Amino acid sequence: MKDFDPEYTSIPDYILKSTMRIWEERDIARIRNYYSSDNIVRSAMGLTQGIDPVIAATNATLHQFPDRRLLGEDVIWTGDDETGQYYSSHRIVSPMHHTGPGMFGPPTGKPVKARTIADTVLRAEKVCEEWLVRDHGAIIRQIGLDVGEFAAQSIATELQRGQTPEVFTPEVDVAGTYVTPEETSEHALMYAGTLESIWQSNWGAINANYNEAVALELPGGFTESGKAAATQFWMSLLSAVPDARFSVDHLIGRDDPGHPLRVAARWSVHGTHDGPGVFGDPSGAPIYILGISHAEIIDDRLVREWVLIDELAIHRQIRLFKG
């Protein structure tokens, strides 16, 4: 790999080792070794630039969940040594206990398990840009709270402190330097086309391209199985945003020995919360959804799918619109 230390045998090796050193070994200061000084982090809850916000967010998380693990389930990546530009999509599951005060209120002591997917741009052994989706909905539910009510309370608390409540939308984005490559693998294009068809209400795409027993890991920490469950999940989103404008913004297809065909897709939705569904009664709020999905494909059918959106960020958009 161009401009990487020889100790790293691959992009997944780099991602897993750096994550282990920062999180598992609690060597938070090493963030300065692995992130560029002008890095851009786009999470569904807002945008930050520079290293200090990354360190602050890491410390805040560990204060609330001191035993948090970051178990790397997969790293799906693309890039080449000629340009020295690499892109990884890192799926993580975190078991932990809520034993410290912070964003989620007083400690409850409850066990929590939630996923994160971090899409990162890598150059010269540094994270330069990141798109981060955390399953805040899963955390909030497991500590016994309602996501919509928590969103309202979090906004009220921030306003009382004189803070400006934030969420990430394209309007607050800043330009990065990453040049998105064209993905040509057939299985990646099949998955992207399936998502596009779903968001156009072509539910036959699920019947055609999902395995009958597809295993689903969905936002909120929910695990489901089968085509009917996949249809119900995607329909609940589209029902809430009937004028949805869907876009696949980044696509990776991998065909690696010892693995099924794998796909990572970062996608977005613009629309209006004008319908009933997963986000409660229609509010008329303009909303933006940042989503990342991973899929495994065998014999031209999806056998596993992981989908992440940040429900808290969407509920915050709705609450901010309602005032």
Strand order of the largest sheet: 2-1-6-5-4-3
Largest sheet, strands/sense/barrel: 6 strands, mixed
Give the helices and strands as they follow along the chain. Answer: HHEEHEEEEHHHHEEHEEEEH
Number of strands: 12
**Class of the largest domain in CATH?**
Alpha Beta
- The tally of helices reads 9
Radius of gyration: 19 Å
Overall tally of structural domains: 2
Shape: globular
| Terminal-residue CA separation | 50 Å
Q: How helical, in percent, are the residues? A: 25-40%
* Overall pLDDT metric: 96
Structural class: alpha+beta
Question: Can you tag this structure with a few keywords?
Answer:
single chain, 323 residues, alpha+beta, Nuclear Transport Factor 2, Chain: A, 2 domains, six-stranded mixed sheet, 9 helices, 35% strand
How would you describe this protein?
With 323 residues, the protein is α+β, with helices and mostly antiparallel strands. The chain has two domains: 11-172, Nuclear Transport Factor 2, Chain: A, CATH 3.10.450.50; 186-322, Nuclear Transport Factor 2, Chain: A (Roll). Helices cover 30% and strands 35% of the residues. It is built from nine helices and twelve strands. It has helices at residues 11-24, 31-34, 52-64, 136-142, 147-160, 186-198, 204-209, 227-240, 311-322, and strands at 35-43, 46-49, 71-80, 85-97, 111-123, 126-134, 210-218, 222-225, 245-254, 261-272, 286-298, 301-308. The strands form two sheets. Strands 2-1-6-5-4-3 form a six-stranded mixed sheet. Strand 9 (245-254) and strand 10 form a beta hairpin. Helix 5 (147-160) crosses helix 9 (311-322). The longest helix has 14 residues, at 11-24. The radius of gyration is 19 Å and the shape is globular.
